[in-house]
Design a protein that fits this description.
The structure holds 2 protein chains of 2 kinds. By secondary structure, chain A is mainly β. Chain A has strands at about 5, 10-15, 20-25, 30-40, 40-50, 55, 65-70, 75-80, 85-95, 105, 110-115. In chain B, the strands form 3 sheets. In chain B, strands 2, 5, 6, 10, 11 and 12 form a 6-stranded mixed beta sheet that branches. Chain B has a 4-stranded antiparallel beta sheet with strand order 3-9-8-7, with no helix packed on it. The mean pLDDT of chain B is about 95. Classes of the chains: A mainly beta, B mainly beta. The interface between A and B is medium-sized, with 27 and 25 residues.
């Protein structure tokens, strides 16, 4: 079974621009979560999508948004980029929380975003 | 609030040594899940193990073993006879309720030949 895929793998943008990152989950997984990893803050939860709806959201400004399509693929968008948005953005997919059982999240290779 | 602490920022050992990575967590809930992930230089987080709060049985998988102790809120990870390929950053994580992993700061493990 193919793993989680993320595109692009690397991205360079300038301040003020916007960026869209894409994530394709493992086949059959309907939940997609996004995380930001920086040297200073570590791994932080951005949001989770399930059945095309945002279910959970972390403490990030409204510049960070996302969506999920009917095939469970997800995109996240960052508008008005700031230098501090430079990070590794990781996407994870899972079968999601079902009947009290917390499913494992499997991660993609990430997108490295550099904001200049 | 949930919190995961990995007090060891960096560990460096010589190949074939045993090494233990510590993880201490905080949560108010009685139902939760603990995870360990490995992050090699490529960046992808590789799932290693999951434990739920009702299962304190220790687990061994090859050279890897995990010790879960609710009494001390710890979920430690031991690598026996370490190898250079074990070099990576290892993260302990906690999840409870919402689909949101809370990660520790990670431990950078370097295995020297």
């Amino acid at each position: 079974k193919a793993g989680v895929t993320q595109t692009p793998r690397y991205l360079i943008k300038t301040r003020g621009q916007q960026v869209t990152l894409s994530c394709s989950p493992i086949s059959g997984h309907r939940s997609v979560s996004w995380y930001q990893q920086t040297p200073g803050q570590g791994l932080q939860f951005l949001f989770e999508y399930f059945s095309e709806t945002q279910r959970n959201k972390g403490n990030f400004p409204g510049r960070f948004s996302g969506r999920q399509f009917s095939n469970s693929r997800s995109e996240m968008n960052v508008s008005t980029l700031e230098l501090g948005d430079s990070a590794l953005y990781l996407c994870a997919s899972s079968l999601r929380y079902q009947g009290g059982r917390q499913e494992t999240q499997y991660f993609g290779p990430g997108t490295r975003l550099l904001v200049l | 609030a949930q919190k995961v602490t990995q007090a060891q920022t960096e560990i460096s050992v010589v190949e074939k040594e045993d090494v233990t990575l510590d993880c201490v967590y905080e949560t108010r809930d009685t139902t939760y899940y603990l995870f360990w992930y490995k992050q090699p230089p490529s960046g992808e987080l590789v799932f290693l193990i999951r434990r739920n709060s009702f299962d304190e049985q220790n687990e061994i998988s090859g050279r890897y073993s995990w010790n879960f102790q609710k009494s001390t809120s710890s979920f430690n990870f031991t690598i026996t006879a370490s190898q250079v390929v074990d070099s990576a950053v290892y993260f302990c994580a906690l999840i409870q309720g919402a689909q949101k992993l809370v990660f520790g700061q990670g431990t950078r493990l370097t295995i020297n030949p």
